[in-house]
């Protein structure tokens, strides 16, 4: 693995870690009312597209980063539906 790829992996790890505090908080509080469903839906679609792009290019850092972020995004979407509360139009 080249130093450029290691840099990409390190950056990817930090990008993925940014999702963890929200995932942990949502899991602990069992509340996702402050989470925007629309934002996480768009984020998930974007990450899937980046993952496909990385797979096509066989770019390990892109695949690694977007796989981790996809897992976190899917967990947040799961929590959004699992801890469903009454929602208003402002929740989107």
Structure commentary:
The chain is mostly helical and 92 residues long. The protein has a single domain, classed as Monooxygenase (Up-down Bundle), CATH 1.20.1280.290. The chain has four helices and no strands. It has helices spanning 3-17, 20-29, 37-57, 60-82. The chain is elongated and about 45 Å long.
DSSP summary, beta strand count: 0
**Rg calc:** 15 Å
CATH topology: Monooxygenase
Q: Which CATH-level-2 architecture?
A: Up-down Bundle
The best one-word shape is elongated
Please, what is the average pLDDT?
Answer: 88
Distance, first to last CA: 42 Å
Q: Using the coordinates above, name the CATH class.
A: Mainly Alpha
Report low-confidence residues grouped into runs of 5 or more.
none
Number of discrete helical segments: 4
Strand percentage: under 5%
């Amino acid at each position: 693995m080249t130093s450029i790829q290691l840099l990409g992996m390190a950056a990817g790890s930090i990008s993925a870690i940014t999702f963890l505090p929200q995932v942990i908080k949502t899991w602990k509080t069992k509340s996702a009312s402050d989470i925007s469903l629309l934002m996480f839906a768009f984020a998930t679609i974007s990450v899937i597209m980046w993952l496909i792009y990385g797979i096509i290019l066989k770019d390990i850092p892109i695949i690694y980063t977007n796989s981790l972020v996809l897992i976190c995004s899917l967990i947040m979407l799961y929590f959004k539906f699992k801890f469903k509360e009454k929602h208003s139009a402002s929740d989107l």
